[in-house]
């Protein structure tokens, strides 16, 4: 990790985790040119400008033999993988930020071996899905609407939802407003927060430059094996501010810091070290800054939630089908129970 960070400083335009593969020849020169070529900005009929990550960026990913499939929603391709028997009830896997469906590479073969149909969708702006370049496009309710359209386009019924991080916020809203679509729900390190209208859940720091630096240093300093954030009785061992300098600092870092790399964040939040090849896979969707509007915007969406999620929470309160929540002791949350960090 130290060497890759040093290389990142020297060659800032190339995602750090891809460099070991380029230098060792695991990615050919032609692949590198194709992946990092200047991208054409395309436009939908609704005048949404977007780019598309080249297929070359996704070649030879470790433990990812799956063929990408696509459904077009409002002129933008939504990517997903669909494995297992088509006549089985689907398990829908929803990732968080800044990852993509590659996050579920270890779960998919186990679920398929158990006879399940497994669908892992990439949120628009992530993974192999198209990437609108305007930050304003990536609103919370727009992501919810696209998930609803995706489920209807694939005619999914009797769904088992497994979601984490922002996949939980998006998925649980859909469960709360369309409970008949889902037979069971499993949530890993996620929730659906409800904030009073007119409040600001995560105020931004006054000194943006200083918060960028501090948050970036925290990612570098997080040990590989993180200490627990709770004792055996469930009492927090550190506060929200201790964990990442406040969620507002994370919003600013994701939105503005030029050193933002998906792989660094995922690696910092992962208990077991990722290999350079796995880091490369997390960076694969984002070969240039123009592709990053989605992951950069997601954290700021928390301040758009007040008064928005109440209707879905009311629906969840009457959901009486199987519902399982899974929390890790190395994932800090604040007293209201909303997630602070991607796993």
Structural summary, described in words:
The protein has helices at 2-10, 19-24, 29-35, 107-113, 140-153, 166-177, 208-221, 240-244, 247-256, 262-268, 276-283, 293-297, 310-316; strands at 42-43, 49-51, 69-73, 76-83, 90-94, 117-121, 131-132, 159-164, 182-188, 323-326. The chain has 343 residues and is of the alpha/beta class. It has a single domain, classed as Rossmann fold (3-Layer(aba) Sandwich). The protein has a seven-stranded mixed β-sheet, sandwiched between helices. A three-stranded antiparallel β-sheet has the order 1-2-7, with no helix packed on it.
Gyration radius (Cα, Å) is: 19 Å
Structural class based on helices, strands and sheet pairing: alpha/beta
What is the level-2 CATH architecture name?
Answer: 3-Layer(aba) Sandwich
The number of domains is: 1
CATH topology: Rossmann fold
Q: How helical, in percent, are the residues?
A: 25-40%
Summarize this structure briefly.
32% of the residues lie in helices and 14% in strands. It is of the alpha/beta class.
Task: List descriptors.
343 residues; alpha/beta; Rossmann fold; 14% strand; 10 strands; disordered C terminus; disordered N terminus
In terms of topology, how is this protein built?
Layout: H1 2-10, H2 19-24, H3 29-35, E1 42-43, E2 49-51, E3 69-73, E4 76-83, E5 90-94, H4 107-113, E6 117-121, E7 131-132, H5 140-153, E8 159-164, H6 166-177, E9 182-188, H7 208-221, H8 240-244, H9 247-256, H10 262-268, H11 276-283, H12 293-297, H13 310-316, E10 323-326
Parallel strand pairs: 5-6, 5-8, 8-9, 9-10
Antiparallel strand pairs: 1-2, 2-7, 3-4, 4-6
């Amino acid at each position: 990790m130290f060497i890759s960070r040093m290389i990142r400083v020297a060659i800032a335009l190339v995602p750090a985790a891809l460099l070991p593969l380029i230098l060792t020849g695991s990615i050919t020169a032609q692949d590198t040119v194709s992946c990092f070529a200047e991208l054409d900005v395309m436009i939908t009929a609704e005048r949404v400008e977007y780019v598309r990550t080249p297929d070359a960026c996704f070649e030879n990913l470790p433990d990812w033999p799956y063929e990408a499939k696509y459904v077009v929603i409002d002129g933008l391709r939504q990517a997903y993988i669909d494995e297992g028997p088509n006549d089985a009830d689907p398990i829908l896997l929803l990732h968080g930020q800044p990852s993509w469906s590659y996050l579920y590479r270890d779960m998919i073969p186990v679920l398929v071996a158990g006879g399940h149909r497994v669908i892992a969708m990439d949120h628009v702006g992530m993974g192999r899905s198209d990437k609108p370049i305007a930050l304003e496009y990536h609103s919370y309710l727009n992501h919810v609407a696209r998930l609803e359209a995706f489920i209807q386009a694939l005619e999914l019924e009797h769904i088992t939802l497994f979601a984490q991080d922002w996949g939980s916020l998006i998925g649980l809203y859909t469960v709360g407003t369309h409970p008949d679509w889902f037979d069971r729900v499993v949530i890993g390190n996620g929730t659906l927060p409800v904030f009073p209208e007119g409040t600001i859940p995560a105020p931004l720091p006054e000194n943006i430059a200083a918060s960028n630096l501090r948050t970036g240093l925290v990612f570098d300093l997080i040990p590989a094996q993180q200490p627990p954030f709770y004792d055996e009785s469930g009492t927090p061992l550190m506060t929200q501010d201790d964990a990442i300098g406040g969620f507002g600092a994370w919003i600013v870092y994701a939105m503005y810091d030029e050193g933002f790399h998906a792989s660094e964040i995922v690696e910092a939040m992962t208990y077991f070290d990722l290999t350079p090849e796995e880091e490369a896979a997390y960076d694969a969707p984002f070969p240039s800054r123009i592709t990053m509007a989605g992951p950069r915007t997601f954290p700021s969406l928390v301040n758009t939630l007040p008064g928005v999620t109440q209707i879905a929470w009311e629906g969840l309160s009457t959901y009486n089908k199987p519902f399982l929540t899974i929390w890790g002791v190395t994932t800090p949350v604040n007293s209201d129970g909303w997630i602070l960090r991607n796993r």
